[in-house]
TrEMBL record:
Disulfide bonds join 7-38, 17-28, 39-50. One of its GO terms (cellular component) is mitochondrial intermembrane space. Keywords: Disulfide bond, Mitochondrion. Coiled coil: none annotated. This is Cx9C motif-containing protein 4. Pfam families: CMC4. It is found in: Mitochondrion. InterPro entries: CMC4, Cys_alpha_HP_mot_SF. Its main location: mitochondrion. It comes from the Eukaryota. It comes from Acipenser oxyrinchus oxyrinchus. Belongs to the CMC4 family.
Length: 64
């Protein structure tokens, strides 16, 4: 039995927000921040939903 992705709820909230706001990211900053926080907390669990956020963090670190 596989475990549910710990950040799946936040990922779904992002999709709902983006759809409701015609994909204007600035209107969904709060849910995107919640997703980033979840991904930071659950990095050791290799969340599939966080794969893009983890890559984004690695790029930011590499460029500083």
């Amino acid at each position: 039995m596989s475990q549910k992705d710990p950040c799946q709820k936040q990922a779904c909230e992002i999709q709902k927000c983006l759809q409701a706001n015609k994909y204007i990211e600035s209107k969904c900053e709060d849910v995107i921040r919640a997703m980033r926080r979840c991904c930071e907390v659950h990095t050791a669990q290799r969340s599939i939903c966080c794969s893009g956020f983890v890559k984004e963090q690695e790029e930011t670190i590499k460029n500083t």
